Amino acid sequence: MLTSSPARDEAQEIELLENTGRGDRASFRLLYERYSGVLFSTAYQVLNDQAEAEDVLQDVFVQIWDKAKLYDRTRGKPLTWALTLTRNKSIDRLRSAQRRHRLKDEVEKETAAGGQRNGTSTTQTGADSVEQVYALEKTRIIRHAVLQLSTEQRQAIEMAFFGGLTQNEIALELREPLGTVKARIRRGMIKLKDIIEPRL
């Protein structure tokens, strides 16, 4: 029976990415099946928003389709390259949102100041405040949930989703069997889902 190995997995992913660069849609679909879960989780860790993370995931796979032909196997593993695209796209989206919020705040402050100068009152709906409170509460829930994981689960998940390491790389770094690392990440993600979903 054939068994999976880090070298074989990486070679398969390189082949899939290079085939995608040549316009092979079947290889692209296989890449999506392999990478979509970890790339979505990476985007969600940055953005703390499911809809935003889904949008980033879609944008990243458009980038992968467009840029696969530029991939150079000597400059890193396919998943590392895809994770870098995802983090960069997520950070860009986060910064863009922050800039929009700052501009909105400045406009509201200026409007409020103008209303006061004109002797009129400015009615605030409080919608923005509610949205900000919800975002802060969601972030707090996720952080609290992560702290409820075992040390081993939290370490593996942080290395995967914050450090951008593959499961094989984590196994080598921790000097643990690959199956153990996969099980820790899987159990940790299930526990996070069980904790977070009812509260959100």
How does the SSE layout of this entry go?
Blueprint: H1 6-21, H2 25-47, H3 50-67, H4 78-117, H5 127-147, H6 151-161, H7 167-174, H8 178-199
Helix pairs in contact: 1-2, 2-3, 2-4, 3-4, 5-8, 6-8, 7-8
Can you describe this structure?
Helix content is 80%, strand content 0%. It contains eight helices and no strands. The longest helix is centred in the middle third of the chain and has 40 residues. The mean pLDDT is 79. The protein folds into two domains: 113 residues, Rna Polymerase Sigma Factor, Chain: A; 72 residues, Winged helix-like DNA-binding domain superfamily/Winged helix DNA-binding domain (Arc Repressor Mutant, subunit A). It is mostly helical and 200 residues long.
